[in-house]
Amino acid sequence: MKKFLCMIMAISLIISSFGMISVFADSDIKVQINGKACDFDTKPMIINSRTMVPMRAIFEALGAKITWVDRTKTVVGVRNQKIVKLTINSPKAYIDGAEVTLDSAPVIVDSRTYVPVRFVSEALGEKVDWDGDTKTVIIDSDYLKAVAVDKGLDNLVSTYHRPIPKEDEFKATSDWNDLIFYDSDAKSPDEIFASLPEGKVIFDKSKFMPYSKIQKGNDNTTVTTREDPELGTVLVLETKEVPEDTAGLIVKWYDAIKGMYSTDDVMLLKFKARTVSGGQEGIGRIMMQIEEQVSTKFYKALFESYAPSPEWTTFYTPIRPIENGDNFGIRFGYFKQKIEVADLEMIVYSGDIKLEELPVSKGAMYQTVAQKDAKWRNDAIAKIPQVRSGDFTVKVVDKDGNPVPDANINVEQYETEFRFGSALNGNVETKEKYRLNAGKYFNTAVAESASKWDYPKAVEGSINQLKMFRDAGIKYLRGHVLVVGTLSFVHPTVADAYKVAFNQDTPDDMQKLIQDHIYEYTDAHLGLVEDWDVENEHITHTTFADKFGYDLMKPWYQWTREGDPGVKLCYNDYKVDDSFTNIVQKFHDLGYDIDAIGMQSHYDTPFASPEDIAKLYEFIGNLGYRVKLTEYSCSLTEDDQVYQANYTRDTLLLALASEYVDDFIMWGYYDGHGIKKNAPMFDINWNKKLAGDQLIDIIYNKMWTHSTDLKSDASGIATFKGYYGDYDVKVSAKGITKTIMVPFHKGFENVVTVVMDEDNSLAYDMVTPDAPAVDSKPDEKKEDTKLPAEEKPSKPVESVTGVSLEGGNVVISPDDMKNITKTERAGKIGFADGVLTVDCTEATTNQQDLALSFKKTLDGLVTDGDTCVMAFKVRLLSGGNSDVGKIKMQVQGDASVNHRKVVFAEVPFGKEWTEVVIPFGATSVSTMVGIRCSFGVQKFEIKDFQIVNFGTSKALTDFPASVKAK
For the domain bounded by 2-140, which CATH number is listed? Predict the structure, then answer.
């Protein structure tokens, strides 16, 4: 009784809020999805003559992922990358950002949220009807016919099948023991140095003394020299207590090279070093720097780390001098360690010597990644299948739920759950090859700059660019970045107020600006991104923390969580030393609300060993965080592909072997993207790099479940081991073939039940967009192909008469038009007296919103190379574009052959009966025949449809063609 009274009170509040509207619960209303009753734990309601149903139940029943934002009382449902957003008591709703007006707003009744069932269903692309006699909402869902939706499965992110790399791009077998290794034939750094002309030495070991030492904390270190009979003066650096920050222990030589160089020169740093004791497993670490102090910003010409082993090693580093960059220093406070430095020289080269002509030391790491029998690598490849694969079950039943034994099952992976991607930019909009290759090779992307607070186009620019990435085929998007702890990274519209608040010591005013920004960006990106980098590079951007303390940053994560509870909150930084682990530990100890740590992974210096990186993953994971490699790059020099390829291979292997790592994202995949020219995959002319071959081999060849055939047992069950990702599961039994898309993801039960009730090929085709053909070959013109111009209105084809189809075998006849599967989202399809009538009543952007497929296929009726002819008559009754109608004919395969098409032809036609003839070469795998009809508002008729197979007795050229087959 109390619950009933609460509902009456809630309904009364709704009436008082909206005026004279009709609100009542109706226990007789039913909802059916594909003929099955949808049971709700509370009854539907009628508001303003609209059927309202429980929010979570309807979204989940339709296979959507749902997020509730309590701060704004907003619900966001996402399915197949379509975003539906509604707010309680608001008539405004949004479908992919486009505003629509509801005549019945979502409401909360008795602590339950109700939403309009028709709007939600149609917004997700479903067809909705109302049966007044039975008070039933009837939802027809192609999506649910083609996609597995179950509590034991994850939500499928996208039905899109990217045109992923295939065998012709693989450089090795799928065996994990068949890795790709490269050997370098390049000259050694010593050989390159010996070939250089004599330069001018402007700093050497004779200047080791005197020096200045910068140190914070206890004076528990020593800087001395000793004389060596072979090396002369040796600098000895000993760290007995590790400082909190590497800047706390630097030996410096101020004005060491003042007046000795020009910014037009190039410079080479050359020295020997060894670790005498300490370090990490015998490997020490130092960083050398050359900086200016005039600007007070400490701009650096040199800021490189080195990892000397116990043996003397020679290091070379090219340097581009900067104005006033006169101060030289060595940081040595990384470990408790004793390191010696000898034969140090800074050499200036003037004239024609270019920076890229100078030697670069590879160090011990170059040999480490080239060793084929390294234990750590063997351990990693043994662990990858344990971490990245699982047992998956397919259960086959008939329409009554009885098990179907001996069913033929084919499983094939079409997407990986692992986030593999790149930073992208506006080239996605203007350069076709850049866009197409991004969609081919990656399922994940992040905007280089568009989502940052200081991006000129603000939030609209971020949304637009991320949607472009999504439209290119990207499935997982990251948001980068909400806040940087310094004054520089804010939008110009708030920059002045930001600085005033900081300078006047009013952190609350500054925090309000940050809070408003976080709420604005998280709200605008709801459903679009799955991660947010809340803060970036705190190690070097400490302005706020130094002034206001670490309590200032903690609310940033809280506000992000309030703004979008559905995303992962990340802290992102570039270092891999103690300063990084210290700050991560500090955030953890202070209780920051963080889900994942973003490791930028710019490995452009020789010190980061694979073992060190693997230990970092363990450290982060043991704190309860996930790990994301967010900005991977690797090159000691721009043209050293061998080191880049070997190091990239091992970095990816170690990431995949870690149970904590979810993402591997590059900071640009192509040298023409505008960042530093060290992209792993393609050079400026779209030649694939050696590292690109490595990445493709590991992700798409080795960590991939290729086409596998199974049989169901007596219980109708087949189990297989596969890599986590999205699969096409094709089942054939009892004369029926059904293909279901299934997300087999880590942490789920991963059991899918396939009901053999009817063929679903058309529904599958309806919800699976065609992937573009992608040319990954080098660009001969050294520039990207521009996007094609918008198509002009078509002219109707001319009627082809007098064509004899005698002597062939009729494999599809006019009678087969009676037995078709229809999709009628944009109109109706009927058949009577031998004529198929199609009435497209709504103009949509999807050609398949009104479509049909023949239930009879060409399976067993054609073989590879047969000459076939499709023939039919068509005429326009009304509508069209300037009295010209249009359809698209198709003969294609299923997902196991990437929908390979032998016919994919647009046919424009006029108001007179037009005889259409389309000769085509058959294949045994392209057997499904269909017609796409949604090309604007139009009504037309088709008759005398047939496909005739002439085998090899006729050639394609023996028949006139109304249009090309594809």
Answer: 3.30.457.10
CATH fold of the domain at 809-958: Jelly Rolls (2.60.120)
HSE of 167 in the Cβ direction (CA atoms, 13 Å)? 3
Extract long-range pairs of 732-738: CB within 8 Å, 24+ residues apart.
732/407, 732/408, 732/409, 733/396, 733/404, 733/406, 733/407, 733/408, 734/398, 734/404, 737/761
Q: Which residues contact 817 (CB under 8 A, 6 or more apart)?
A: 831, 834, 836, 854, 942, 945
Instruction: Return residue ranges of the chain for CATH 3.30.457.10.
Output: 2-140
What's the pTM?
Answer: 0.75
Angle between helices 641-657 and 610-622 (to 10 degrees): 30
CATH top-level class of 148-180+391-417+703-782: mainly beta
HEC per residue, 342-364: EEEEEEEECCCCCHHHCCCCCHH
CATH number assigned to the domain covering 419-644+663-690: 3.20.20.80
**Beta-sheet strands, E only, within 488-643:** 531-536, 568-573, 596-599, 626-632
pLDDT grade, residue 15 (50/70/90)? very low
Residue 838 falls in which region: left (phi positive, over 0), alpha (psi -120 to 50) or beta? beta
Render pLDDT for 584-640 as a digit per residue (tens, 0 to 9). Answer: 999 999 999 999 999 999 887 655 677 788 899 999 999 999 999 999 998 765 567
Rounded Cα gap, residues 103 and 91, in angstroms? 7
- What is the DSSP secondary structure assignment for residue 325, as one 8-state letter? -
Which of 367-371, 543-547, 799-803, 813-817 has the lowest average pLDDT? Answer: 367-371
Q: Is the peptide bond before 481 cis (omega within 30 degrees of 0)?
A: yes
Instruction: Choose the weakest-confidence range: 755-764, 873-882, 890-899.
Output: 890-899
The verdict on whether omega for the bond into residue 54 sits within 30 degrees of 0, i.e. cis, is no
Tokens found for residue 868: 């076939």
DSSP 552: G
